[in-house]
Amino acid sequence: MPHVGARTATDETSESVGRHHTKDKGDLGVAKAHADLVAKGFYVLFPATEHAPFDLVAYAAGTFHRIQVKYRSAQAGAVRLNLRSTWADRHGTHSTPIDKDAIDVICIYCPDTDECYYIRPTDHGVSVNLRITPTKNGQQKRILAAASFRDLPDKHLPPIDETRTSA
Fold it and tell me: Which part of the chain is the PD(D/E)XK endonuclease domain (predicted)?
């Protein structure tokens, strides 16, 4: 364990290269998704451009899955994802709904659990809320348990019933 005030490699790299905090989070999410998918037996392919709507492609058993990766911290016992793309440029911050036909799966990496959760965007409306801990009021109806989303969904199955409550 480094002593108090010790500099890390990240500190020096950030100063010399001009790293961007949100980009680092995205890179960590993609790295965690890559490792998780390989551990699950998938081959993982990366696009040759950063302009693709997906961050990686998982392949197994003759099926390709286009995957967009999102890094989301837990808040109030849940991981929430708005199904929108947001970016900033010199004209301000912009947001648009994601193109649900351009990707098959969204992988949500949560640093608080160090887990990846996989959803099909077509199964959800404008957002998804995955519970990591039980609700304080004990509600179970229409609650999506994050633990139920640890596996890559089969893109050939019908949409989910949004009542996955068991872990």
Answer: 20-151
Q: Could you please report the per-residue DSSP string of 33-45?
A: HHHHHHHTT-EEE
CATH of the domain at 40: 3.40.1350.10
The alpha carbon of 87 is separated from its chain's Cα centroid by a whole number of angstroms, namely 17
What are the pLDDT digits (tens) for 53-92? 999 999 999 999 999 999 999 999 999 999 988 888 999 9
The total number of structural domains that make up the chain: 1
In the chain, the amino acid numbered 87 is: W
User: Contact at 8 Å (CB) between 98 and 121?
Assistant: yes
Domain that holds residue 21: 17-149
What is the phi/psi pair of residue 34, to 5°? -55, -50
The letter for the amino acid at 109 is Y
Give CA–CA dist 51/34, Å, rounded. 19
